[in-house]
Amino acid sequence: MYQVKTVSLMKQSKEKSLVQDVLLVVGAACAAGVVGALILAMLTLLVAPAMAGEQGAAMRQITTDEVQRGSLLLKMVSGGTMVDAPMVKTDVDIRISGMLARVSVSQQFHNPGKEWVEGIYVFPLPEDAVVDRMRIRIGERVIEGEIQETEQAKATYEKAKKAGKKASLLRQERPNIFTSAMANIAPGEMVTVEIEYQQSLHYDQGRFRLRFPLVVAPRYIPGVPLGEDNVAAFNGTGWAQNTDQVPDASNVTPHVVGPVAGPVNPVSIKVVLDAGFPLARLESSYHAVEIVRDENDLHKLQLIGHKVATDRDFELVWEPQSGQQPHAALFVEQWEDKEYALLMVMPSAQEKQAPKQVSRELILVVDTSGSMHGESIRQARDALKMALQRLTPADSFNVIQFNTNSHSLFSGAVVANPHNITRALAYVDGLDAEGGTEMLSAVNLALDGKTHENRLRQVVFLTDGSVGNEQALFAAIQQRLGSSRLFTVGIGSAPNSFFMTRAASFGRGAFSYIGKIDEVKEKMTALFTKLESPVLTDIQVTWPEGEMAEMWPQRVPDLYLGEPVVVVASLTNMSGEVVVEGRLNGQPWQRVLQLQGGGRNPGVHLLWARRKIAELMDGRARGRAESEVREDVLKVALRHKLVSKYTSLVAVDNTPVRPLEAHLQTKGVPVNLPKGWTANRVFGAMPQTATSAPMHLLIGLFALLGACLIGSRRKLAS
């Protein structure tokens, strides 16, 4: 009886303890909820003013007065609402002669509000554009811009802005992203900023292509947010915070309007094409155009429609008639005390040789981040399937996908037998797009840094390139490439052309673009023709004896089938002969050209300067000190008067227009979401991709609260 009673008492004690535990957990949960709510409230009070300061006046709270007086309200998918945001209408005039293009971009800033405004417009240009002119047009008056070091140009602009003068500042954020700032736009006023640049055209596979980007796609911004003491050189108006990995993130992430608002910032494009040969094909890849051929054999094109949306790249393609393809071209210019030459040499089709059979390892890397959702991921899946189906039993392969994390289908490259190909095709069918764009981990996974004897290792990246940390990626490619070759395929309506071209250059490969499903077969066939065809290697260009030519690039990269040798050089005397030689599929190859008879074209010296600056900037990824690069770039940019990372164009009207007592608001110009993108896959609930310091604090507080509860529970249990 005693033993039974003891057991009964112990049972009652345990039941009582269990009830106490349940009550304790419920009470603790309620307390945690109250404490959590208080913490969130305090953080909101602390963080909201700081975030409001970062976003600027354009993203402030909307007042009842503003709604009543009919302000223009735009909902941003990147977060927040803009009040009376300035808008920009862009007119583009492109004049093409042979391999050169001169482009004028007219940006009409409109202030729809009732306050004085400084408009900040982040916009794209081709990655090889040589911007050398900017001016403000106010009625009949024109104010020309002048080139200055970036910090000096900023000081000149800020001084004029504070004095109430109209001023414009044009600076480069990336080689393909620029910011145009226009100060002191009066209520209801329109002010025009005109920009001009020079560009050489891309010739590949017997076709000329010209791309004009129309929207800066949202960038994935990795890293930890910087404090107020570590801001970038310019205070940006973008949706992202500056981070340790992308210190200028706020400068390259313009706010994005939602689909309800409809497209903003319309564009018109006109092209005058003087090809210099009869055409077999002339077409716009993605936009409807009207084409007229005049009596001088000039082709004139323009976009159809008055309000064409700036939501995808414009591309023009033309092809010579059979037998009219250029085999060599020379464009020259005398500028100051130098002669400048742009030289193109194309190996003829008769020089093709049967490729040497080499064991090949193909690594297919695909971007499955949120920006690839929709049309882009469908294009990528089709491209991957086509690549897999072209593999032979002698090949090996692997498939890697990346978003917030990276994942490879196999632990290493496997033989391309039917079983492995079938498994890979099923894997590709299951690919979906979501999450961030942590490309660096994919680069490290795909490139092993090794030398592969008797095996050709080729890595193909399919991505839209929507990242802000390009420089870190270039450095990783440079360090880990080994004997591999890296090829990039730009996917979607607005790929990051700067990343695509430079990554392929660092990777000793080639680049291409796929803008719609209909192009997958054509573009991937062209890419694999290159992968499977002989390469022109060990290319040397010898200028006339005694001539101290400065040529860029200094080391001509290897070329693939259908690609020409293209170099620019400065010389003291444009005479004699130039010899271009190399090895085509292991056999000697040579061309001898006379330096006479080239077409005289203004702007060749600008192309030379731009190519030299690009090579100097690449030195950063190879470990050269930023200060040394800056010094060398400044010498070239200031002499040739062009925009670079370290130089900007600034224009100031000396007549004050804004009363000093009138308040000036800084507002960013919102942009469209690229065509085919899905907003909630890109931004989700929080547009900033990096975890903020307040969030770290909140997580820490909850962790501390959890530790206290666990400690209390253990003490009670003991």
UniProtKB/TrEMBL annotation:
<feature type="transmembrane region" description="Helical">
    <location>
        <begin position="21"/>
        <end position="48"/>
    </location>
</feature>
<dbReference type="Pfam" id="PF08487">
    <property type="entry name" value="VIT"/>
</dbReference>
<keyword id="KW-0472">Membrane</keyword>
<keyword id="KW-1133">Transmembrane helix</keyword>
<feature type="domain" description="VIT">
    <location>
        <begin position="71"/>
        <end position="199"/>
    </location>
</feature>
<keyword id="KW-0812">Transmembrane</keyword>
<dbReference type="InterPro" id="IPR036465">
    <property type="entry name" value="vWFA_dom_sf"/>
</dbReference>
<dbReference type="InterPro" id="IPR013694">
    <property type="entry name" value="VIT"/>
</dbReference>
<feature type="transmembrane region" description="Helical">
    <location>
        <begin position="693"/>
        <end position="712"/>
    </location>
</feature>
<dbReference type="Pfam" id="PF13768">
    <property type="entry name" value="VWA_3"/>
</dbReference>
<dbReference type="InterPro" id="IPR002035">
    <property type="entry name" value="VWF_A"/>
</dbReference>
<protein>
    <submittedName>
        <fullName>Inter-alpha-trypsin inhibitor domain protein</fullName>
    </submittedName>
</protein>
<dbReference type="InterPro" id="IPR022440">
    <property type="entry name" value="CHP03788"/>
</dbReference>
<feature type="domain" description="VWFA">
    <location>
        <begin position="361"/>
        <end position="531"/>
    </location>
</feature>
